[in-house]
Amino acid sequence: MTTPTEPAQDPLTVFPLPRLTRLALLAALLVLPALDQSPQSETDLRVVSYNIKHGRGNDAVVDLGRTAGVLRALRPDIVGLQEVDDRATRSGGVAQAAWLGEQLGLQHAFGRFMDFQGGGYGMAILTRYPVVSTRAVPLPDGNEPRVALAVEVRLPGDRPLVLVNVHFDWVRDDSFRYAQAEALTKYLDALTIPYVLLGDFNDVPESRTLALFKSRATEAAKPVDDRFTFPSTGPAREIDFIFFSPAAAFTAGDVRVITEPVASDHRPVLGVLRLLAGGALIGETAADGAPVASRPTDRVRQPVPADDGAPTSRVRGPRSTAW
User: Is the alpha carbon torsion for 109, 277, 187, 270 positive or negative?
Assistant: First the structure.
């Protein structure tokens, strides 16, 4: 004998609710998923600036696996790297930005300063967020050629953010360094969406170079009693910084210098920034109407080594020693 099957019930008719109430509940259910992706939600960003000296530690060994380990422990969302090699002989022919990105599960962009030892030398940005575009911002040459690397990313809720990585000239005479900083401010002043500026500024907080950025952005300030970043074996100068703008779009949480005396001659800086609700809705184009960060850089897409370790080397190369 077959048991009759009861007719299926509409979930909204199980309870005897008025029709208008049921329609309101259905509308609420449809809206909730969209609220989860709202650009009004806050986003916490773990931001790291680190001059890695092409992975060459204070033991004179190039060990990019060690560098990756330092970064992995910080669980970064955004990383600005300075002194990065791209397939140069001294660092074993490794495309360092691509290799580090693969090891950390982050996207990468490389900005080339100059050709060097069969490859290139420059800087990189690693990011957990989708990369929309990259741009090498031209800067005046100093003792070495320089660019700033600008990368536009999209945060959850389709919120735009520009990341700007710098490595200014290093000698005591600040003429080249200040000229490079002035050139970069023209790019920053044209941005109409929030940005994070980070890197090796090769100058101290009281300098005229840093004054340019303090007048138009907010520093993610380190603890007063632990703010020095160079040299890593016994820090005596604060020359690595993280800034953000506009001030109303962010709050800064934990900011600290990481105790790491071996992997490089600089210590990494970690800053936890919170992009506030609505903080990335200022606009999406530069003052001239062109998309922000639209010029191509040497975006590295080549296959990278599959092994977990990076080649080691004791070959010396160009040196950007901070004064």
Answer: negative
Architecture of the 46-275 domain: 4-Layer Sandwich (3.60)
Domain residue spans in the chain?
A: 46-275
The set of residues, in sequence order, having a beta carbon less than 8 Å from that of 215 and lying 6+ positions away, is none
Q: Which of 138, 97, 91 is nearest to 117 (CA)?
A: 91
Model confidence over 58-92: pLDDT tens digits?
999 999 999 999 999 999 999 999 999 999 999 99
Contact 46, 74 (CB under 8 A): yes
Tens digits of per-residue pLDDT, 204-260? 999 999 999 999 999 999 999 999 999 999 999 999 999 999 999 999 999 999 999
> CA torsion 306→308→314→315, rounded to 10°?
30
- For the chain, how far is it from start to end, CA to CA, in angstroms? 93
Instruction: Write the secondary structure of 248-266 as one string of H (helix), E (strand) and C (coil).
Output: HHEEEEEEEECCCCCCCCC
Would you say 258 and 70 are in contact if contact means Cβ atoms under 8 Å apart?
yes
> In 3-state terms, what secondary structure has residue 84?
strand
* Rg of the chain taking only CA atoms, in angstroms: 24
pTM comes to 0.78
| Structural contact between residues 112 and 145, judged by C-beta atoms closer than 8 angstroms | no
